[in-house]
Amino acid sequence: MGPHPAVAAIRHAVRVSLARLEPGDRVLVACSGGADSLALAAAVAFEAPRAGMLASGITVDHGLQSGSAEQAARVVSLLASLGLGPVQSVAVTVAGPGTSPSSQGLSHPGPEAAARAARYAALDEAATAAGARVVLGHTLDDQAETVLLGLARGSGARSLAGMAPVSGRYLRPLLAIRRSQTLTACEAQGLEPWHDPQNCDLAFTRTRIRHQVMPVLDAALGPGVAEALARTATLLRDDADVLDAAAEQAADQLGGTGAALTAGWLADAVAALPPAIRHRVLRTAAVAAGCPPGALSQRHVASMDELVTSWHGQRWADLPGGVRCQRKYGRLLFTASGGSRGGRE
């Protein structure tokens, strides 16, 4: 008899994802010990050697709960027992005002985003040191929740496009796999996943979406909402990729992001761009000037856009990261916020 259907589905998804790599490449499985990443780790441990690849593992200890170090040690042991190696645990410090969720609403990142930033920094460092690609256990359910979060924030098409199957060094093989399948796969293989208590804490936005919003949508609209949201993400990602490429070309025609930081861009030329391209060009220039991408909201983009489409003598737009976008003598210029204060034409 072959493997359980859930195990087979996850192994197939991993096999397809690894097919883009070469024999001899190393992959690093990020595992919290939860069902999603544990089922992924088991599948990678099975598939990678058959593809001639090296597979190691990592768990990140955020230190946000008592006993987190012991849990990390358990995950290390479990990953090693699956045949991954070497396996490491990395402890990180999560920035922010403690472990309580933010009460400031969706527009503020809160501890979830801080933990994510610390985790990805640790994964980047470990992957660089090992010369590896990182494999993550995000599922279709995670994708659906991400789309709803982006919709609630009003973050635009790129945010609604969700997570990509491949993003730089990161691979996400399970974006077509349901969370229920990973639970079943763990059970079928005799693996005992860890159930993170924060995944049931309704103080966290994503947890509320998981346990309150999605069940209501399923009850009101019928089954298949999660799949529909994931399909929407795929379609929007394709569109966003095309628009991003067009925006990159437009930025080059304006003189490149370097020109926006030195001589500036002709405001009329920026204004002539279609809105979908113009907004992306402005965002790209702001990020190139030093704005943290995650802190740059649509409100910031709109304030820059007004400098070229609704000019009535306003002086500048202050952006995250100490960056200022201002219009001077018909040109749009990005500077440090402590720069020249003469903004009128």
Identify the CATH class of the largest domain: Alpha Beta
CATH topology of the largest domain: Rossmann fold
Tell the overall outline. elongated
SS strand fraction: 5-15%
How much is the radius of gyration in Å?
23 Å
Compute the number of helices: 13
| Oligomeric description of these chains | single chain
**Class derived from helix and strand content:** alpha/beta
Please mark out the parts with pLDDT under 50 across 5 or more consecutive residues, or reply none.
98-108, 338-345
Helicity level: 40-55%
The count of DSSP E runs of length 2 or more, i.e. the number of strands, is 10
**Secondary-structure element order, N to C:** HEHEHEHEHHEEHHHHEHHHEEE
What features would you describe in this structure?
The chain has two domains: 5-221, 3-Layer(aba) Sandwich (Rossmann fold), CATH 3.40.50; 255-336, Uridine Diphospho-n-acetylenolpyruvylglucosamine Reductase, domain 3 (2-Layer Sandwich). It is elongated. Helix content is 51%, strand content 13%. The model is unreliable at 98-108 and 338-345 (pLDDT under 50). The chain is built from 13 helices and ten strands. The protein has helices spanning 5-18, 35-50, 68-82, 110-130, 140-153, 157-160, 179-188, 205-221, 225-254, 257-261, 267-271, 275-288, 298-309; strands at residues 26-30, 54-61, 87-91, 132-135, 166-167, 170-171, 265-266, 316-319, 323-328, 331-336. The strands form two sheets. The chain has a six-stranded mixed sheet, with helices on both faces. With 345 residues, it is α/β, with parallel strands linked by helices. The termini are far apart.
